[in-house]
Amino acid sequence: MAGKIKNNPTKERSLGKIMLAVFIPFIFLGVLAWVALTLSGMNVSKEVGKAASAIPGLSTITSSNEAESTGDTSDRLEAALANKEAEINQLKQEASDKESLMEEKDRQILQLQADLEEASQPSVQEEEAEDSVKDLALSFREMDAEDAAPILQEMNQDKAVLVLKEITNKERGTILGAMESAAAAEIAVRLMDE
Asked: Which InterPro entries match (predicted)?
């Protein structure tokens, strides 16, 4: 009996060595083939799944895994689609808001341009004031300097300056010469400032 026990472990060891010598190269070749096919662009997992579904015992296992992965993929794609649609709606709203803002700014620009044109055109009152100053200046041209000087001295200095601007330099000089020196000096300074 002791001889039988000794023979069994050696047989088992030799059988294990044979199996290791056969299976390890097959496993290595399988991994090597997997890597090579993956690098060549083939989806090895999918192909193995198809081959496994053809085997009767494995077909139930692989089909349930495919159904789960298809369902997960579908759910993820639907969620991604919903997120993108929400993002599109948000961008449309932002574009609409910016378009409204641009329209409001365009209206403001048009209003400011209209206000600028209105402000640049002399008003009827300003034109009438200019005409009355010219008429008054014509009257002072026809007066003697001794008569015009006291009148201009008593006038508002702004208006006196406007009137003196409308007459010639020679007439202006004779009128200023006929005025009191302090009043003439103030008006002369104002004429130079304008």
From this structure: MgtE_N_sf
